[in-house]
Structure prediction request, 451 residues.
Amino acid sequence: MIGAFVQNMSVQFDESDEYWRAVVESAGLGVWDYDTVTGAKRYSQRWREIRKLGPDDPLPATDEAWLALVHPDDVATAWRHTELINSGQADEVAFEYREKCKTGHWIWIMCRGRAIARDASGRATRFVGVDADISEMKAAEEAQALYAKQVDIAVTLARIGIRRFNLATETVTWNARMHAIYGVPQAEGPLPRDIWERFVHPHDLERVLRETAQGDLRHEDYNLDYRIIRADGEVRHIRSRISYVPDGLDGPSFVGVDWDMTDDVQQAMLLEQAIDVADQRLAQLAQAQEELEHLSRHDPLTGLPNRRSLDEYVQRIAPDDTPIEGCTFMLIDVDEFKQVNDTRGHVFGDKLLQVVSKALARQFKPWGMLVRTGGDEFLAVLQGDLGGQAIMEIADAAIHAVRMASRAFGHEVTLSIGIEGQPGTAEELFSNADRAMYRAKLLGGARAMLA
Prediction:
């Protein structure tokens, strides 16, 4: 079975079963061989080990029995590819699925196969393939949030790069796929001992040599991830698995199996970039929503809260139009502001309103809320039982502050203020303050009056 597997590959090595068994096992692969005409199926020991099966454990007798061990979410995929093999419609198959092993646990398997025999009509009649246990890799992918894409490192007969360093002869040999990965033309005879190191990216070389030395010293299987610079100058991302083979026919060797991971790395980078762009857009959207929300509750000219903010504030302190206690409404109007607009223009008038609003905001900030209710009219809502004298002092201070600020601006204005501090609904407080403000205007303005 291993021999049939070997004959399907273009290599430069000795094709002994023992050597290739070591090569396949170094890649962690389980080999299967299926003749669709006779129905004969053969499996390597590693194939059984992947499923925790011993040499004498029975195998599923039919495709249906095998599918009963496949994860429900993967049955359709597994059956579709099995049908391709059974019908001889495919030259190659490759798929991932979960299978329940003997211990009852689900394991992830990458299955790849290729047709190696055909009948007179050209229909594929025999397939040989490999299964790889990729459970650890799947678990690692789930642990890495930035790797939302599956890393496809499954081994195929045509995509494995195999390199071997013979410790006895100190010779290096590569198979055809290894030459293709590194962009090195095939040549007769052993390769230079340091040929692999020549292609490792300079930024990765020190780390890779250090990890290689540690792995070789332990004589244990180990993995490497690194970049290479191909003979044509192209940078590629490589993953290697290296195994120590102590009992080869021609002496102990280190056998490495290489996969080109460039596409997966690039996809991961693109995914990371897409996530960054999405995060930026979400942040921009959140900021825009926050700005819109602010604009909906504030006056665009003065930046003060508007009537919507006032309504929400009143609803919080007196829900369902219940009487308000412990608050004073001060309705404020700029005296003769229409004349300012008529004589100096609306642009000047808007700037003057900004000066007035800033002066009022400074005065009322310690006491409560200041709202622009429209035009040249403002409403201050003062919290607490301040008493009549304190309220009048606050109002007079506001009138004085606006007078000084507007004088400095270039056009002195005064205020008429109506005050209501007795309990009542918001509508009653506003209405009473409004009447008091108009009485202040009738008396010449520049004053505050209690309702």
Remarks:
- The first helix runs from residue 2 to 7.
- Confidence is low (pLDDT under 50) at residues 1-15, 145-158.
